[in-house]
Amino acid sequence: MNAFFKLYCRAYQTVFRLALPVLPYREPRILGELKDLPLFLQQQKISAVLLITDKPLRALDMTRGLENDLSAHGIACAVFDDVVPNPTVQNVEDCRAAYLESGAQAMIAFGGGSVMDCAKAAGARVARPGKPVQKMGGLLKVLRKTPMLIAVPTTAGTGSETTLAAVITDPAAHHKYPINDFVLIPDYAVLDYRVTLGLPPMITATTGMDAMTHAVEAYIGRSTNALTRAMAEEAVVLIVQYLQRAWRDGSDAEARAKMLRAAYCAGIAFTRSYVGYVHGVAHSLGGRYGVPHGLANAVILPYFLEEYGPSCRKKLARLARKAGLAGGNASDSAAAQAMIDWIKQANAAMGIPTSIPEIRKEDIPAMAAYAAKESNPLYPVPKLMDRHELEAMYLKLMPKEV
């Protein structure tokens, strides 16, 4: 990377780190059980809501209980269930239209990260009707109050129920727009493990490793504070202890509850301390090929941790010791490697591949340019990389020729 641009990136990141104590971060208020939501809405004098979800969840009747309870409490509930994985600009526009047509006073996002991202972006479009999604990509491009948003996560991974981020895909441009603004942080989050019971094993695995990526990238970056370090450490400890339990037995209530907590903690950590190149590359793969975000993060994470090398070794070693993966007497090098080895072994045990077969060599320069543009200067990564260096990482992610 050019020395002057490197200096600019670090200066930019330093300003944000110094500003952390005064920026308007907040956490959503936690509601423990889904069954309590209708009464809560009555107390808030909310008489009409838009329930935002996807068709697979609705087909499984996962929202039926909530819809019935809302009706029983006299709360009108319109439903928008057209959210797709990697929600698109058109998704957002359709959701916005449904909200306005329904006369709703609040949004309930019931689902995984895609549902919450769609709801957040739709709320942003309600607040900024003259500003298209394509103009909201980046930092602080909304800056107006959005409709009340209640997040009900059905997966334990994205942490979107606590973050200021939404990622929207433009299929025509083969690009994802990360939108980051404090107004996108949900007002309330319902962390009820019951809605995650029976989550399919592969989704459990990839969303869990998504949470691991959030925690690790936040922790090894250069913009941490005491809160984000503590949240990232708690998330990693819980994921090491409970992810594979939840993967093996989808009805394990303790494991499901602990994984919801892990995802929430990781969300707090990366909302304030940001992520890194793993996310920049994952977003480019989602935009170009539709690779699910959690799967991409899971595959990519160990490659970047190895590439960062000594620049993140001490922090990775600390995480490994906190999670019980390395003893107190282990060297930083050995402890950091133990952390990387655990990620690789957990991926393998849960059937997560080691490569992204969709990658085509001819697409790499454009994807690397997108990843570099998203990541630099915003993400306070331990080791700065330009688009040419990122191109080499895409090559590593391709299946090995036999």
Produce a short descriptive summary.
This protein has helices at residues 3-19, 37-43, 55-59, 64-72, 89-102, 113-127, 201-220, 226-248, 253-273, 277-289, 293-308, 310-322, 332-349, 364-375, 387-397; strands at 29-31, 48-52, 76-80, 106-111, 138-139, 148-153, 165-170, 175-180, 188-190. It is α/β, with parallel strands linked by helices. The strands form two sheets. It has a six-stranded parallel β-sheet with strand order 1-9-6-4-2-3, with helices on both faces. A three-stranded mixed β-sheet has the order 5-8-7, with helices on both faces.
- Series of secondary-structure elements, N-terminal to C-terminal: HEHEHHEHEHEEEEEHHHHHHHHH
Residue stretches low in confidence (pLDDT < 50, at least 5 long) are: none
Give the helix level as a range of percent: 40-55%
Report the sheet-strand fraction: 5-15%
Over all CA atoms, what is the radius of gyration?
A: 20 Å
| First-to-last CA distance | 33 Å
Shape: globular
Q: Write down the overall mean pLDDT.
A: 95
Number of helices: 15
Largest β-sheet summary: 6 strands, parallel
- Subunit arrangement of the protein: single chain
**Which class of secondary structure composition applies to the elements?**
alpha/beta
DSSP summary, beta strand count: 9
Side by side, the strands of the main sheet go 1-9-6-4-2-3
